[in-house]
Amino acid sequence: MNEVSTTGPKSLYEKRQPVYPQKIDGHFRRLKWAIMAVTLAIYYVTPWLRWDRGPYAPDQAVLIDLASRRFYFGPIEIWPHEFYYVAGLLIMAGIGLFLVTSAVGRAWCGYACPQTVWTDVFQHIERAVEGDRNAQVRLAAAPWSVEKIGKRSLKYSLFLLVSLATGGAWIFYFADAPTLLRQFIAGEASLVAYSTVAILMATTFVFGGFMREQVCIYMCPWPRIQTAMMDEKSLLVTYKDWRGEPRGKGRRTGELSDLGLGDCIDCNQCVAVCPTGIDIRNGPQIGCITCALCIDACDRVMEKTGRPRGLIDYATLEDCAVEKSGGPPKPLLKSILRPRTIAYALIWSSVGLGMLFALGNRTRLDISAQQQRNPVYVQLSDGGVRNSYTIKLRNMQTRPREMRVDLTNLPGASMWRDGQTRDQASRSIQVVVPPDALAKLPMFVVAPGSGDASEKFGFTVRSTDGEGEMDSTEAIFERPRK
Amino acid sequence: MAEKKRIDEPTGTETVGHEWDGIEELNTPLPRWWLWTLYATIVWGIAYTVAYPAWPLISEATAGVLNWTSRDELKKEMAAVDAGKAPIVNAIASTPVDQLKNNPQLLQAAVEGGRAAFRVNCVQCHGTGAAGSKGYPNLNDDDWLWGGDINTIHYSIEHGIRNPDHEQTRMSQMPAFGRDGLLKPAEIDELTAFVRAASRQQPANAAAQRGAALFATNCAACHGSDAKGNRELGAPNLTDAIWLYGGDADSIRKSIHDARYGVMPRWGEKLSPATINMLAAYVHSLGGGEEERVQTAAK
């Protein structure tokens, strides 16, 4: 702890320190390539998958149809009133992140987060156009020349192309993809489509091309939440300082142990490859997204210097303490399987199973009755009393369905629909509800004038198409109070 | 305040120099791009106040260089809605009202338009649910003074009820039997007893039987020999369960003594033909609407 005397006011603001990550190959780099390929494939291919739902529904496997308020996911169709399934998915996503964080640390940040994936793509483009780390540093420092202008404009053009592809793919989740693509190219798509693409293009360009690690460090809440979730049993990318220190910069390999120095030769490779520009040897920090590229870099150096790999490695703080005191290293599986991760996994899977159970048991028709309350009842000339209801029949299947609506209880009562007259009244009405639609039937119910001022009865709907689904609802019949 | 600024070892960042019960704060600089976003929002805010109404002055606010007002926007939106509705309103106006039912879409538009027009023009007397009140008929029920098929309803709305200065209006007048001395009070009581018996509200006693003879001479001409009314004259059915002015003895006695004279404006002079078609369709849809009789007498 060294006291300092302040020399002049320090600036409150700090310019971004540019990061020029160096190219690296290794186990974790290859894992990153694989995950990048899978996540990008999911993102770009999903809207183009087809799913046959018959003539009355779209054939896109995953479709968020905002205009008609339906969400299609393979065989599952979600209506707006079933939005709790989406809430359930979000809960699963949240608990899933908890699970991943407590099991393998910030694996989401390091491998699967869109910010990480697109930053990675952009940094590869950068290396392809401007060269590796040193060439990029030189180019940044060089005065403006034809070559610099050429390289920079090529780089930004490629950035813009990737950004366009990013924003462009997003809109296909919200409309029929082949149709929308044709319209989009022909200039006939809606303004919403173009502006969505433009906004996502701009955010991709700015976040992937310029902001990069600033998003993770300053804008994203998730690193802060994860910090609170970490404990001594969480898997981190760790520099084993007891092995590395003191550093032997510029020493020959053979000299290190003779001089009492650690394994770290201070080659700075771990810093050079880091996409967020941190020095992992300073310990766990918020800038570390655990992408493990520094492990790849250090392992190579250890191989060259003939020291065992893993000076920088995935390890828990607890393991580090054990290893430091010379204990045997714990198997990786043991640090992943522990009560906390098992509890998260149980919660996660029970939410999922609960939703699957609910999905398997939901009825795809539904009745509700809303009483017209102005006026509540109508006195008829023969002494009878009439009430009006709006019956809502929901057909959540993608085909027209025949249904029968019956009156239950309320002796002597009969009903008729709008467009009919009282001569046609009966206790049972047959209707065909259009596919995937809500039918509203204004319904008149007439009953004898003698009886309770408020009498309970019900409407029941049955599908008469052989599936035998049914639903019922309660209603009240009101009469003049005597 | 003990100003002991020092460099925090793990981060290499200076502290702010104050200690709160052992807790110190790092003086971490903000990223400079964050500062630029702050400036950008300030510029945006200034530009907004220049472009749009913003600063409140004594009587009104600054108008902004774009001259935008929410009233203009509403006016434009209303004009656009009206223009959009024009084809269907014209179709409703040019379709005979009894033909609307042949085009379910048009009928539905007419009923909804009628519901809106009813809210503006009719609720003052007939109530928001068209349920009426004493002296103002309930339009939901199946009892009609002048008839409940859609053409008749249309005629009643267009020409009104008892507009003396209008030739085609629906016109009839019941004599004030008591006030004008046509019947004695005792006779009025007997007539009341008869009417209450005819509507099965009390047993047919001796007074009611005497009233039957009085009814035949004084009332049957309009209300019919069976007391079931006459829609040509707007004479109500006295045997049913619906009473416009009340079916208790006092109300019936008062109706016979003073007579009643319900009036409705003729809407043909105020509303467009399309609106009257819509109103007729709406009233007809309320549950009491009748089918047209096959042979309607030409008007």
Report mean pLDDT of chain A, rounded to a whole number.
Answer: 89
Structural class category of chain B: mainly alpha
Our count of domains of chain A comes out at 3
> What's the CATH first level of the domain at 92-173 and 266-292 in chain B?
Mainly Alpha
Assembly state of the chains shown? heterodimer
Computed Rg of chain A: 33 Å
Strand content of chain B: under 5%
Q: What is the number of E strands of chain B?
A: 3
Shape of chain A: elongated
Which shape of chain B, going by the Cα principal axes? Answer: elongated
What is the CATH architecture assignment of the domain at 92-173 and 266-292 in chain B? Answer: Orthogonal Bundle
Separation of the first and last Cα atoms of chain B: 101 Å
Distance between the termini of chain A: 91 Å
Low-pLDDT segments of chain A: 1-7
- Count of helices of chain A? 17
Low-confidence stretches of chain B are 295-299
Instruction: Give the helix level of chain B as a range of percent.
Output: 40-55%
